[in-house]
Write the structure tokens for this entry.
Amino acid sequence: MVYSKEYIPTDYLHNLKTYQYKSIDKSPLSNYVLNHYWEYLVTFVPLWVAPNMITLLGSLHIVGAYILNMIYAPNLNKTMPSWVYLVQGSCLWIYGSLDAIDGKQARRTGQSGPLGELFDHGCDSLTTGLALTMTATAMGLGCGWKTVVFFFIGYINFYTSTLEEYHTGILYTGYFSGAVEGIVISSLSLITTGILGNGIWKIPLFDKIAFMKPIIESTNISALKEFNMVDFYLSFMVIGIFPTVYASYRHIKRSKAALNKSTNQAVKDMIPLIAYLGPASLWLYNSPSVLAPFPTLNRMHIPMFIGVVNSYIINSDLQKYFSGVDEVALLWICLSVSFIQYSHFALSVISVICNYMDIYCLTIKHKKVL
């Protein structure tokens, strides 16, 4: 493969030397509980292990768990063997743990730098969809709009938090975030499903609450009668995404105000996400043939390159535009193009940064002098 420097213009390479990682973590779970575990865990990692190798190993655990999904429940609606849920929950926990200690290992070995953050976020962008897949399967969401909402909210959260870091120069972790609490909840959900079975997600909640029974009987609203753990989980995500996005915007606005700059560019940077989610939703709505294999294909496609599909479907008359076209085949083409594009981007940027910074990606070239 011929690598390209177009992703990082030569005139901007000097900025890599001035890179500084900044973060603000407000999570009580992270600060008062998990950080002690992470600090202890990283002591078991030899100093010759590169931080990016830790990141990669964590991501491979998610890939392995995802392969089990492809084998046992490709459409997210089949009950898998109990051991699969337990393995997936364990893999997700390992992923979260390794993702948390790669930065600590970087500081231990003196390898902190821009490549580490890029490698970490790049892996996260690919594994987020795979991790969502495992949780969606445990809940038995299947091929439907609940799955679409589940995935879209996950990526809105990931996209806006990345945008926030880009415009503020600081990685914010709020009181509740997908990177900490989200991984813990998903991991425990998978393990619980493995122990108790996925039937727990279908148990009506309000029917089990004494003071709610008279309300349900008097209103006779079927939605209340059928409201279960899946609905609660999705409702929590839908409601929670609004303050999450607002918090990101508030941090960006505060950062720009300190520099006497406008937030207009940050708002404009949301356009690619909206430009994808809108047409993609219309395509799924108008084309059941695409919605049916949505979990299998789209969960792989979305994280790779938000926008390839958009170039095919940004047309108001979708049904007419795709008339006579095998849309599932088209989706496979989009996935292939996305994979090639993302791979070229990742390998090119890694190559450029490694050459300029005189470092290796997965091994330590210049060991820290102790």
Notes: Residues 293-301, 303-324 have pLDDT under 50 and may be disordered.
